Amino acid sequence: MIHSSTVQPNTFPATPSRVWSSSASSAWSSITSTTFGCPAASPSPRSSCYFWMEDIDHQGISAFGTSGYTVFRNVKDYGSQRDGVSDDTAAINAAISDGGRCAPGRCGSSKKTPAVIYFPAGTYLVSAPIIDYYYTQIIGNPNCVPTIKASGNFSGAWVIDGDQYQPGGVLGCGSTNVFWRQIRNFVIDITLVPASTALVGIHWPTAQATSLQKIVFKMSDASGTLRQGVFIESGSGSFMIDLTFYGSNIGAYRGNQQFTTRNLTFYDVVTAITQICDNGATGLYRHKALKLELFSWNGISALRQLHQLACGTFAHVSVALLVVASNWPNALRRTRPL
Question: Which residue of 71, 231, 262, 327 lies most exposed, with the fewest beta carbons within 10 A?
């Protein structure tokens, strides 16, 4: 949770350092000099960015996949430079697609080709969408959170595309059929793209066993901004936690029947959440020009969303909550105390 006492608008907090502490080193040194008859090894010096996932033996296999299929993929092994200057789009998409995986529009679902796509610390410049595949875990270093930065000439509707639209306007996998995926530990930075250009951080129409965790969206609070952090037009269940939105027209546009969210924080956004289907949410919502919009044709769904909203804090806002319903008097008769 970001606390208002320590974070100012339009500033982006640094990721706390995690270092090899003196107490941990002492505890390690106190271990007996022999363990099972072998000399005890001294700990290797570790930087503040150290994360165990990078250097363990990656021995995981796909239970149903072909021999030699690679589950763990480090994007730097596919050529990403992570210097904020070189275009890493092709390298990242190669890491995701490698191995004949279940691609949007070509595969409805599959348990044969799971993948963990790991991003070490760095800034990854992209000029086109990162295309997510079925059964994919996209994970950044949690100790030095990587940044995915859209270039000034970015071409596409969203930086990360969780279900790519196909010819004819249909989703590649179908939102209620997208399972077993996550994105966690990232900064999505789209500040280089003009604010007048419509652009979304993450397109995420998904179903159960999916999540977005610990993501900061750096966008624009310029007048007339067309930024959106998350766009979810349909789906059936997911989890979102510790998402922070800086400057946008809409922080999160959500249409999904079972999403649960916690610890969503918004700074300098026009509308924090536009919610078009039922949702349970807790979190902190703060700063200027912020509101929630709940849409329903008869008012019942909108009020059900209201009923499930817990622990919402609104500060320095002109409109905190806006409910839009075509049959509002009918909805009022169904209102329960909040």
Answer: 327
